[in-house]
Automatic annotation (TrEMBL):
Keywords, alphabetical: Cell membrane, Membrane, Transmembrane, Transmembrane helix, Transport
The protein, known as: Acriflavin resistance protein
Gene3D superfamilies membership: MetI-like (1.10.3720.10)
GO CC, alphabetical: plasma membrane
Amino acid sequence: MTTTTASAPLISKRAIIDWLGIAPFMIFALMFLIIPTLYLVTGAFLTPAGEFTFRNIADLFTPSILSAYWISIRVSVASSLGGALIGFFLAWAIVLGGLPTWIRSGLLTFSGVASNFAGVPLAFAFLATLGRTGLVTVFLRDWFGFNLYSTGFNLLSFFGLTITYMYFQIPLMVLILTPALDGIKKEWREAAEILGASTWQYWRMVALPILWPSLLGTTLLLFANAFGAIATAYALTGSSLNIVPILLYAQIRGDVLHNPNLGYALALGMIVITGISNILYIWLRMRAERWQK
C-alpha cells in the first residue's frame, strides 16, 4: 500500500501577504530615494551634453565650494554638539531626575512635534522672535534698554543659524536618548554604591561608558540632520550665508549659477558626508544595544 503526500507550495500565502505588505514602502523608497540618488551620482560625472567627465568632482575643490562645505560642517557640528549637550541634560532630568512624571509625557510630546518643526515656519518664528523687530528684541530694548543687535548678534549669521537649528536638534536628542537612559538598570547603581563608589565615580566608570555609544551616535545623527537642512537656512538667511544646500539650490534652480551637473556633484559630496555619519550612528547604536541587553 503506497501513500502520497501533497507537495508543499513553492511560495506560501503568508509569504505573499508579507511581501505585499512591504511593497508600498519598497516602491516608495525606490522611486523617491534609490533612483534619485543614482541619478545624482550619475549626473555628477556627466557634462550638460551627456559626456563623461571628472570636471564636476574637481570643481568641488575650488575655494568657494570648499568654503561652503566648511561653513556647513561648522554649523552642523555646533548645532549637533549644542543640541546633544542640552538634550542630554533634559533627558536625564525627566528619566533619572526628580521631576514629576507628568512633565515627562508633556516634554516628550513637545519633542515629537518640535523635532519636525523646520523650514519656512521655523525661520519665520525666529525672525518674529529674535529678528531686528522681533518680539524679544523689542521687549529687551523697550523695557530694559538693551539693544541685542548692538552686541554684534545677527540672526542672519552663523551663530543665528546655529541657534535656529538647535530648536529641532534638542528635542530630537531627547527622543533618541530617553530610551537609552531608560535602559540603565538600577542594579548597576546599587552595586556601585555597595562597593563604595561615589555618584561621580558611578557616572564616570559605569553609566557614561555604557551611554557613550548612544551619545556619540545620536550626535552624529544630529550632525547629518543639520547638514542636509536647506528650507530653514534658505528661508532665514537667503543667499547671505554660503552653505552647501543653498549653493546646491543655486546651481540647479538659479539663473546665474546654473550648472545642474555641478549641483549633482555637490549633492554627491553631501551624500558621502551624511552617509558616513549615518553608518557610524548605526554601528554605535548596535554597540549600545548590546551593552544594554
